[in-house]
Each structure stands twice: as structure tokens, then as C-alpha cells.
């Protein structure tokens, strides 16, 4: 198993470095992504970051070609291990310097630096070391033990795909969608049945004429709410100003606990202003002056 | 003052207010004007509401609490002192009391400037966030949301999370949410683990 791992490490590594290198060197996204990377912050220039990314991409491609062509030679493996160590150092530095920025690892991703980027860089380092100490060539191992090789390569590919944040949308979201289809929606039936949530009552209140009439007085957001005999009571605080005095008041609204904005017909709201100290009703003239406003009748 | 006495007083107060509310003026009809709730905290254009026009706003992180005064460090290096009163409304996921406010919380407050330099708060929204997201995963007690480059975990609270589909009224039924939908999430940020308690999620708007 160990000989299989070290023997095939150059092939796996060449695949990974070939892909990320080609994306960095030839991808159009590099120029677009470079300003967002931690590298641009370090070099304080997007143009320099593009040059460095392209250069790293070329180096990755060169190492990948070396790993494929001369797997028995320790030089490409050592170079890959150096690349991996460099990536790890860069990620650590970038994480400390600019945790919000993207890592630019595959140059086409928009994801911030997470543990997955570190894990992928560590994989490059470890495989590089394994490739450097490999004796045989990968083609002799593949031809000698085809089934085991195929299994190992598939497993390695799955691990690398799982560690690449930019491939998520190709496998993770479809997988999650499929899980919802098979096991049903996890939030099905979690709602409180037909009950109208308080937020929906507040929403209805704020779309009502009663709210418009009371809004010169209301100052707070929702203070308290409770239900009584089919009514939902919503309490606010406010200030009632007349020419002579300014009085702090409680504003209480009562609406049907079963109606929301989707309920047909006009909302019916009862409103009172109560003096905050004495509890006596005030400001009735403000409320009695409101003309009733009917919704337009629907044809049919 | 024991808590049972408190409860009794609270119940008495509620009973009194209920009676008053049900004997108040009855107003029928709908209006096109919006409200001054949490949404208005993010309103782009100036509100027509007189309460808003006369108010000043404070936003930032709470760095200290002295009695009923909150010390707030603004996002732009400014400092403010917010005076809580016994009629200040406090929103933290739901309507709650000033006891729920902690140091380190984010704050958005609307109030009236006082001569001593404090702002007497009419309404305070704690840790309120409004995020334009995409749903990337749905589980029984949380949603995985993508906000720009960031993965955000949205906690689903059985008693506080509501959804609005295609502009319809809020409902506690969350079973119409789909992976891949764009969702506007109004919620409360949790400073401890950077997740968001989802209060309102609007899709198909």
C-alpha cells in the first residue's frame, strides 16, 4: 500500500498542479480575481499580484510536467513539496493579514481562506515529499496493479475535489438538493400550523389606516404583545403633543389574531392612546378624524 | 419585589391595557405608507413618518453599560451614549427588555438628542442585520446561506423564524424554501459564533 501511495503520488500531484497551474496561467479569471486575493494586499498592487499568480501557475505546470515525465527523479517531488510549503506559508500570512480576502489558490474561486485551502496545500506538501522518495515510475505501478491503482486514484480525486471550495457548486449543492428530494424537506411541518405569527400581525398593522393615524404619536417599536379572547394586542409607547402640553402615552392596538396581509377585506384595528401615568384615554380627536378608506372593489 | 409580584403587576397592566384597547376607536382600512419597524432601520429614502424626521440615529458596538446608559462605539470612529428609558422598545430577535442587551452586541437605535449629549432611545434594535443571501443548504435547525464570498449559518428558531414568499404575508411555514433561491434575510447576528438567527426570510420577491 505504501509503495502504491508513493508510486502514484506523482500522478495525483501532477493532476492537481496541472489543473490549478493551467487555471492560473491561462484562465481569464486571474485578472478579475487578483484584486480580491490576499496576495494583492501583500504586494499592494493588483498588477503585481496578476504577474505573481501567472508565474506561480507556470511553475506549477512545469513541476506537473516533471512529475509526469521523470517520476523517479527526486527533483520535481522536492519542487512540489517546496510549492506546498510556500502555499502553506502564504495562506497563514494571508489569513492573518486579510482574513476576508480570497486565497487565489485556483485563481477562479471567490472563497475566503478556510481550513480546506490549508488542507489542500498540506496535501501538496505531503505528496511532494512522497513523490521525492518514490523509486518506481507511476506507469509501471498502474500496469502492474491496475485495479488497486484505479481505486487509489479515484479516492485521491474525491478527496481533492472535496478540498476544493470552488468545485462545491458542481457536487455539493446537487447532493444537498437530492437529499431534500429523497428525505423530504426538513422544515416541513415545523410551522405552528394555521396560526398567524406576531410578525405578520405587526406587518398588517403597519399597512393599516390605524397605523397611519397613530404614527404622529407612536415613537417606539413593538414593546409588548399578548392575546386575549381572539384579539391580538400590540403595545407601543409614544408622545402625545398638543399646543399646551407634551404627554408620554402608551399606544395599544387590537386586531383579529387570525388575520394577516393575505386575509381578504380591509384590516380592522382598534386604537387607544393612554396617558402613561394616569392611564386615562387621550387624543381621541386624532383618531376620530380618520376617514374610513375602503379597498377598491374587485370586478367579478 | 419578587417575580410573582412582577408577574401579577404585569398581568394587571395587560388586563387594563386590553380593556382600553378594545374600547378604543375602531379604524378600518389599509394604507400605502410603511411602518417604523426594523425594516425602516434600513430604509434608503427619508421616511414620511414624523417620529423619524425628528429623531437621531445611533449605530455601533456596545462597549459598556452603566446603569441605563449604553456606551456605543460607532463604525466610523464616533462615540455615542444611549439612554434607555422604561418606554424604550428593545428588539433582539423578538420584542424583549433591556436586560437582554450585552456588552459586545451591535446596536441600532432611534431616539431624541438630549441637552446632556446622550440620545434618549425610543427604539433599540440589537444585533440587527439585513443580508442579501443565497440559500445553499437546508437542515432542520439551520440554513446555510451564501452572502457574497461568505458562508453564513442561519439558525432557524421554531418560535421566531418566519418566511415571506413572493411578497405575501409572513408565515411560520418554512417548507417552501429551496436550495439556490435568493433570499433577503432579516435577523439577529450572534457575536459568539458569527451565525445569524433568522427572523424573516423573504424569497421570490
What is the element layout, followed by pairings?
The complex is a heterodimer of chains A (300) and B (205).
Chain A: H1 2-26, H2 29-33, H3 38-43, H4 46-69, H5 74-97, H6 115-132, H7 138-144, H8 146-162, H9 168-183, H10 198-206, H11 209-214, E1 224-228, E2 231-241, E3 246-256, E4 268-275, E5 281-282, H12 284-288
Antiparallel strand pairs in A: 1-2, 2-3, 3-4, 4-5
Chain B: H1 3-22, E1 25-28, H2 50-53, E2 56-66, E3 69-73, E4 79-83, E5 89-92, E6 94-96, E7 106-113, E8 119-126, E9 128-138, E10 142-147, E11 150-156, E12 162-165, E13 182-189, E14 196-203
Parallel strand pairs in B: 4-8, 5-8, 11-14, 12-14
Antiparallel strand pairs in B: 2-3, 2-7, 3-4, 5-6, 7-8, 9-10, 9-13, 10-11, 13-14
GO biological process, one term (chain A): methylamine metabolic process
Domain Methylamine utilisation protein MauE (chain A): 8-131
Keywords (chain A): Membrane, Transmembrane, Transmembrane helix
Using brief descriptors, characterize the structure shown.
heterodimer; A: 300 residues; alpha+beta; 2 domains; 12 helices; 5 strands; 54% helix; elongated; B: 205 residues; mainly beta; OB fold (Dihydrolipoamide Acetyltransferase, E2P); five-stranded mixed β-barrel; five-stranded mixed barrel; 14 strands; globular
Averaging pLDDT over every residue of chain B, what do you get? 86
The largest pleated sheet of chain A is described as: 5 strands, antiparallel
Low-confidence stretches of chain B: none
Shape of chain B: globular
Task: Give the DSSP E fraction of chain B (strand runs of 2 or more residues).
Answer: 35-45%
For the biggest β-sheet of chain A, the strand order reads 1-2-3-4-5
Question: Gap between N and C termini of chain B, in Å?
Answer: 49 Å
Q: For the CA atoms, what is the radius of gyration of chain B?
A: 19 Å
Q: What low-confidence regions of chain A span 5 or more consecutive residues with pLDDT below 50?
A: none
The SSE order of chain A reads HHHHHHHHHHHEEEEEH
* Overall geometry of chain A: elongated
**Beta-strand percent range of chain A:** 5-15%
Largest interface: A-B, 83 and 58 residues
Structural class of chain B: mainly beta
Organism (chain A): Streptomyces brevispora
Keywords (chain A): Membrane, Transmembrane, Transmembrane helix
Main location (chain A): membrane
InterPro entries (chain A): Methylamine_util_MauE
Amino acid at each position: 500500500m505504501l509503495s502504491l501511495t508513493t508510486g502514484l503520488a506523482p500522478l495525483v500531484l501532477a493532476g492537481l498542479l496541472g489543473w490549478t497551474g493551467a487555471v492560473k496561467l491561462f484562465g481569464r479569471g486571474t485578472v478579475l480575481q487578483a484584486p480580491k486575493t490576499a496576495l494583492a494586499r501583500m504586494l499592494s498592487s493588483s498588477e503585481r499580484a496578476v504577474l505573481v499568480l501567472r508565474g506561480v501557475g507556470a511553475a506549477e505546470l512545469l513541476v506537473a510536467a516533471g512529475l509526469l515525465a521523470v517520476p523517479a527523479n527526486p527533483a520535481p517531488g522536492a519542487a512540489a513539496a517546496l510549492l506546498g510549503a510556500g502555499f502553506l506559508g502564504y495562506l497563514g500570512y494571508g489569513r492573518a493579514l486579510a482574513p476576508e480576502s480570497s486565497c487565489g489558490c485556483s485563481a477562479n474561486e471567490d472563497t475566503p481562506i478556510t481550513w480546506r485551502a490549508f488542507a489542500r496545500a498540506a496535501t501538496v506538501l505531503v505528496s511532494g515529499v512522497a513523490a521525492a522518495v518514490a523509486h518506481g515510475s507511476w506507469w509501471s505501478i498502474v500496469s502492474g496493479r491496475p485495479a488497486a491503482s484505479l481505486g487509489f486514484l479515484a479516492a485521491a480525486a474525491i478527496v481533492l475535489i472535496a478540498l476544493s471550495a470552488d468545485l462545491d457548486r458542481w457536487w455539493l449543492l446537487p447532493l444537498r438538493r437530492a437529499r431534500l428530494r429523497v428525505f423530504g424537506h426538513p422544515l416541513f411541518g415545523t410551522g405552528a400550523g394555521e396560526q398567524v405569527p406576531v410578525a405578520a400581525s405587526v406587518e398588517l398593522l403597519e399597512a393599516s389606516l390605524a397605523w397611519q393615524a397613530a404614527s404622529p404619536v407612536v415613537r417606539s417599536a413593538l414593546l409588548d404583545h399578548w392575546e386575549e379572547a381572539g384579539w391580538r394586542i400590540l403595545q407601543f409607547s409614544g408622545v402625545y403633543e398638543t399646543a399646551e402640553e407634551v404627554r408620554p402615552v402608551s399606544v395599544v392596538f387590537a386586531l383579529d389574531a387570525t388575520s394577516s396581509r393575505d386575509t381578504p377585506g380591509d384590516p380592522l384595528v382598534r386604537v387607544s392612546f393612554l396617558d402613561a401615568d394616569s392611564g386615562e384615554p387621550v387624543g381621541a380627536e386624532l383618531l376620530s378624524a380618520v376617514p374610513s378608506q375602503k379597498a377598491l372593489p374587485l370586478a367579478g | 419585589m419578587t417575580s410573582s409580584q412582577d408577574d401579577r403587576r404585569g398581568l394587571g397592566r395587560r388586563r387594563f391595557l386590553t380593556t382600553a384597547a378594545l374600547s378604543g376607536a375602531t379604524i378600518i382600512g389599509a394604507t400605502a405608507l410603511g411602518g417604523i419597524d426594523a425594516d425602516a432601520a434600513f430604509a434608503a429614502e427619508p421616511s414620511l413618518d414624523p417620529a423619524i424626521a425628528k429623531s437621531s440615529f445611533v449605530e455601533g458596538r456596545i462597549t459598556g453599560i452603566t446603569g441605563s446608559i449604553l456606551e456605543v462605539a460607532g463604525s466610523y470612529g464616533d462615540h455615542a451614549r444611549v439612554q434607555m428609558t422604561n418606554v424604550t422598545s428593545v428588539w433582539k430577535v423578538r420584542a424583549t427588555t433591556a436586560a437582554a442587551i450585552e456588552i459586545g452586541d451591535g446596536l441600532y437605535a432611534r431616539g431624541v438628542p438630549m441637552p446632556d449629549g446622550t440620545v434618549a432611545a425610543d427604539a433599540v434594535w440589537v444585533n440587527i442585520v439585513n443580508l442579501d443571501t443565497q440559500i445553499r443548504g437546508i437542515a432542520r435547525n439551520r440554513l446555510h446561506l451564501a452572502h457574497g464570498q461568505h458562508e453564513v449559518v442561519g439558525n432557524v428558531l421554531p418560535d421566531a423564524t418566519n418566511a415571506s414568499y413572493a411578497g405575501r404575508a409572513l408565515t411560520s411555514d418554512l417548507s417552501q424554501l429551496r436550495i439556490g433561491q435568493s433570499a433577503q434575510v432579516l435577523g439577529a447576528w450572534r457575536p459568539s459564533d458569527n451565525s445569524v438567527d433568522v427572523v424573516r426570510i423573504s424569497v421570490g420577491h
